[in-house]
Predict the 3D structure of the following.
Amino acid sequence: MSAAATLRIDLTALSDNYRLLADKAAGAVCAAAVKADGYGLGLEWIAPTLWESGCRVFFVAHAAEGAGLRAILPDATIHVLHGLASGGPATLLRHGLTPVLNSLDEIDRWRRDGRGRPAAIHVDTGMNRLGLDDADADRLIQQPQRAAFPISLLMSHLACADTPAHPMNRLQCERFAAYGEGLRQAAGRPDLPLSLANSAGVLLGADYHFNMVRPGIALYGGNPIIGSENPMRPVITLDGNILQCRDLPPGAIVGYGAAFRAERPSRIATVDVGYADGFLRACGDGRLCADVAGHRAPIVGRISMDMLALDVTGLPEAVTQPGRPVTLLGGPVSLDDVSAVTGLSAYELLTLLGRRYNRVCIGEVQGTGSKVLISK
Ligand SMILES: *Cc1c(COP(=O)(O)O)cnc(C)c1O
């Protein structure tokens, strides 16, 4: 019995997912989005596993994340999606990070202070979130010398790739292809690398791959295309432990707000996982079931900060003893199902998990022959 709930991370599955995506995008470089600490799973084991699987190019959001990744992977290419906003040129240069420049102002600043080091450029092709807007993008084609540094990559980002039939996909793809050709000609760089696809974009087909793809969620087992069969291997399993069990008469309540009231003689197990561990209130009130030794047990009542309650009425006593594990996520409780029931995306579920779990990495990274079993 472990002291705390356990988050198991299957590095073999992560590696297999990387290889599957790299195969699907054959011909393009397969990079990895590892922002937010590798989607909440922990860069310290996610990053070396991806590296051993053949990944050489990484994307983080903030300069500080890039510095952390640099300490793990001295030879990787690390892009910082927030450009110069989360750390200026001096910080980026110190850690050998490549900014993704999001405006003409940032391009001018990198030309002055970037010491001739490469930078990527992000054009907005309709998502209207980040990147050069239409006016800035046109001006860059008219004045390509403003980017008088090696442009390592021209990228854009898809707004609706998880919905393959959405007209935004084709629209953004065509805009990006046209702009990429324009900038290649203007800058005299026919080989300037282009990148558009996130995980779902990889599955949209070869038109979307260009020279580099940047999957994130699919690496970690999330389903890139909503409502379709998930081609990725699950990466995480989350097991809580039963702290106590009690028998309740009809009419008794459970937890804050008396949000659950027993309608029959009930047996309730209290488990050591709560909203501080990423199990938000949306996971309670009977919406989800945990797996208790192969039996389904609904999560009942309001979830507390450090605990939740399972209705284990009728389950064998042996599997509901204090210290027994219950699976809350992964295995028979798929990320996709939890996502569908709670309205929380797989991205939210993973990045919310928090650092309180006993994290155990299992698996073997193919090609190195090295077995990994890290516990923290
Ligand atoms: C997060 C992110 C990705 C990866 O997206 P997924 O949907 O997780 O595959 C790729 N590109 C950019 C710009 C991102 O912000």
About this structure: The two ends are 15 Å apart (CA to CA). Residues 33, 35, 81, 157, 198-199, 214-218 surround pyridoxal-5'-phosphate (CB under 6 Å). The CA atoms of residues 291 and 327 lie 5 Å apart. The chain has a mean pLDDT of 95.
